[in-house]
Amino acid sequence: MRLARRCMLAVLMAWLAGGCGFLAGAAVAGAGVVYVKGEAHKRYPREVPEVFGAGISTLKDLGVIIGERLEGREFASIKGRTAGGEELTMRMDREDTGVTKVRLRVGLLGNREYSQLVFSRMDRRLGL
After folding, report:
1. What is the CATH number of domain 35-125?
2. What is the DSSP letter of 110?
3. Residue 55 and residue 47: Cα distance in Å, rounded?
4. What SS3 string covers 35-79?
5. pTM
6. For 66-111, how does the pLDDT look when each residue is reduced to its tens digit (9 = 90+)?
7. Where are the domains of the chain?
């Protein structure tokens, strides 16, 4: 019910804004991942350290070479390079108690398929 209301609100906002790009983003939001200017966003009902652990493990399993990592209770980030040579940046921010927003950019312009793969594997690691 809540998701239906959010989707209806997104469609209304798209109609008011007159933008097709927004409407496409709203359709993807129903799946839990939103794409904004080449960056994938997803919220997890977990604290930052748990999401960070799932992110590191997932990226290593996918063959990402981890270059830089910062881990904290409120914020974390991972920078690396995919097996295909694309730069990857994952940022995690605590939004509320038990809610972490993850932003993922793969390559210069973004890579939706790879981002979706990362998030689906993180979902499994987190039991979602």
Report:
1. 3.30.310.80
2. -
3. 12
4. EECCEEEEEECCCHHHHHHHHHHHHHHCCCEEEEEEECCCEEEEE
5. 0.73
6. 999 999 999 999 999 999 999 999 999 999 889 999 999 999 999 9
7. 1-30, 35-125
